[in-house]
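Changelog note: in this version the structure field was regenerated for every chain. One regenerated record is shown below for reference.
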Amino acid sequence: MEYEIKQSGKFKYVSEGEGEPLVLLHGLFGALSNFKDLVDHFKTGYNVVIPMLPLFDLGLLDTSVGGLAKHVQKFIDTMGYSKVHLLGNSLGGHVGLVYTLKHQNKVKSLTLTGSSGLFENGMGETYPKRGDREFIRKKTELTFYDPKVASKELVDEVFDIVNNRLKAIKIISLAKSAIRHNLGEELQDIKVPTCLIWGKNDTITPPMVAEEFHKLISTSELHWVDKCGHAPMMEVPVEFNAILSAFLEKHKG
């Protein structure tokens, strides 16, 4: 399914369904297709919203986790949401955490899956010579427990990004920002109900990261998904949606 990209001022976003807003924050290589099953499942009971994070459009100094969190803050204010359910995968989880720490009164619930913010294994700080598609394919496959989930379309999307010199520079800048912006000292301040949904076979933000998040966020619950890597909502959507649905129902209304 192709989603309609809407625009409000400088903000581009997808909005499907009606109800309480469920705002999804994508990661560094987060295509809309990453959230397809989630959107299709939850649009019957929620207004599922995906703001397009300006990964490649901010000035280099603002190309950071903090810069993206400010963008999310302005987006939520522009849309007039008083309370949102916030969900972030990978870098999107990190952005969601930074936003939540500053605006807990606006967040009804927070869901993190494969989130950065404490520790992550990235693609490395440099890329091989442009055009090395095989390297990108192998790196993309490492996102998943089952490498077949890394479809040709997904590999092509990642390859197109890293093969663009300016985009590659921005990706490296954001990856470095995520490493620098460690939230270990601040997470205990989060009092929002938080759901951690983690792949047991995540090699990018390994299980120990989820356990540390769970320990530091007193209001969190931790759910493991077996035979699953860094993007549970893509790899095991039925199980992911069941966990998320039960969590959201507890904090709805």
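Spot check on this record: The radius of gyration is 17 Å. The mean pLDDT is 92.
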